[in-house]
Amino acid sequence: MYGEVVATERLTPQLVRVVLGGPGLEEFVLGEDADQYVNCFFLPEAAPYPVPFDDEAVRELPREQRPYPRRITVRAWDAERRELTLDIAAHGDVGYAGRWAGRAQVGDRLQFRGPAGGYRPHEDADAYLLVGDESALPAIATCAEAVPAGRPVVAVVEVEDAAGEVELTSPGALEVHWVHRAGRHDGLDDLLAEAVAALPRPTGVVSAFVHGEAAETRAVRRVLLREGIVAQERLSCSPYWRRGMDDEAWRAVKAAWVREVAAEPLD
Ligand SMILES: Cc1cc2nc3c(=O)[nH]c(=O)nc-3n(C[C@H](O)[C@H](O)[C@H](O)COP(=O)(O)OP(=O)(O)OC[C@H]3O[C@@H](n4cnc5c(N)ncnc54)[C@H](O)[C@@H]3O)c2cc1C
């Protein structure tokens, strides 16, 4: 599948909204999970083929011509207009996804596979906790929109500074805590964990969604499980990216990291 850019919007200095439309989305079907993502193929400048391309055939090309796969959350799907909205972090002049988003123009095309997902706010929870950085902000937004009406939802979101904040809405009773990283040159791995540890303890059964930078999500997971704030079966926690590694380097070691985190003693 592929989409054609029909609109772009700079939501914040670090986050670009790209709306895709066109005939390449005819077969797109959104599933039930709240955190659905598509696996997008970003093309290097040397790519000698246009979108759409045969994604099996391009695997045979030399590395410098092959597309770079990046997972991006479906921020919204408008089934009537058949338009797909993605919010992509533009983090400096690096990264195939970030740079593409920062420069996207109406008419540009993006090919992808999916969607797939893994979390839906548990119906039986008394409260919801949503934690992450800009990479998880689109999924935090869709999860906040998917909780049952009236129930407490706390979102803890790390952004660069106040200009990085966006409006979040929810049928639940939503409280958002913004964590600013600007001016912090150390302790970045613990920013979210410290903010989560400082929250009043939620009562009852908690369903939690914790995604974003690997070391940060690991630190939050520790707090949530060690303090017994969330039971493991109601915690969705995964490392979306790793500081200091691009996605190729990260995917090469991610499975080992996830195993190491899962084996971590929690008492
Ligand atoms: C299921 C899933 C859903 C995701 N949804 C989204 C989404 O909706 N929006 C989104 O923006 N990202 C999302 N991500 C994260 C995204 O796939 C990664 O951040 C990816 O590495 C970005 O690719 P890139 O080409 O821009 O940078 P890369 O080429 O992978 O990396 C280049 C450099 O930038 C750094 N970097 C990567 N991401 C960030 C970041 N967010 N902030 C600061 N530095 C960074 C890397 O560590 C590296 O040093 C999702 C990831 C997963 C697994």
Unreliable stretches, pLDDT < 50, 5 or more residues? none
Relevant CATH superfamily of the largest domain = Nucleotide-binding domain of ferredoxin-NADP reductase (FNR) module
Query: What is the level 1 CATH name of the largest domain?
Result: Alpha Beta
CATH architecture label name of the largest domain: 3-Layer(aba) Sandwich
> Which compounds are bound in this model?
flavin-adenine dinucleotide
Summed up, the domain count is: 2
Percent of residues in beta strands? Answer: 25-35%
Number of helices: 5
Please, what is the average pLDDT? 96
**Would you report the number of β strands?**
12
Report, as a whole number of angstroms, the end-to-end distance.
46 Å
CATH topology of the largest domain: Rossmann fold
Overall structural class, as computed from helix and strand content, comes to alpha/beta
What pattern of helices and strands is seen along the backbone? EEEEEEHEEHEEHEHEH
Q: Could you please describe the fold and organization of this structure?
A:
The protein is α/β, with parallel strands linked by helices and 267 residues long. It folds into two domains: 2-116, Beta Barrel (Elongation Factor Tu (Ef-tu), domain 3); 127-262, Rossmann fold (3-Layer(aba) Sandwich), CATH 3.40.50.80. Helices cover 20% and strands 32% of the residues. It contains five helices and twelve strands. The strands form two sheets. The protein has a seven-stranded antiparallel sheet. It has a five-stranded parallel sheet with strand order 10-9-8-11-12, sandwiched between helices. Strand 8, helix 2 (137-145) and strand 9 (152-159) form a beta-alpha-beta unit. Helix 3 packs parallel to helix 4. The protein is globular, with a radius of gyration of 19 Å. 37% of the residues are buried. The model has no long low-confidence stretch (mean pLDDT 96). The protein binds flavin-adenine dinucleotide. Flavin-adenine dinucleotide (FAD) binds next to strand 4, strand 6, helix 1 and strand 12.
